[in-house]
User: What shape does this take?
Amino acid sequence: MTFSPELEARFEKFLAKYPADRKRSALIPMLIYGQDEVGSVTDELVEEVAKRVGVKPLEVREVAGFYSMLHVGKPMGKHHVQVCTNISCMLVGGAELYDQACHKLGLGHKQVSADGFISLEEVECMGACSWAPAVQIGYDFYHQVTPAQLDKLLDGLKAGKNPDQITEVPKVNC
Assistant: This one.
């Protein structure tokens, strides 16, 4: 499988961090960044990562199947919107935000817009309970999101903007 020069360099950097008998420690970050480039965790990506970290493809598939941030076989949108509906977020409007996103985008759980630009996912926890309700778009986090802020985020995405171009809603720097 051929990757961009940037991803190849990133993979080499990950692999160089670990001794030969610990290369499997690079498995998850390689899957995440590979997924970013390929669109999902494909069979080809599984095979390539397995070869590079020195494990069986089955072991890579087991890891990919365990982590919800890895999407096996089905690409998510260029901008993947995740809305937390776990207890802390739910108590302060997370479920309503998810319903609002479903309605506004015309999408359900893990569905992708026809143009492949936006996807939506209801998630159980983002680890941001103190700042609930939380929304994540790609790698950008938004805490204490109001319905009006969610509308601005989604309207911006629907207009073709990248999340960093939507300045009306402050993102959290992690």
Notes: The chain has two domains: 5-66, 79-165. The two ends are 32 Å apart (CA to CA).
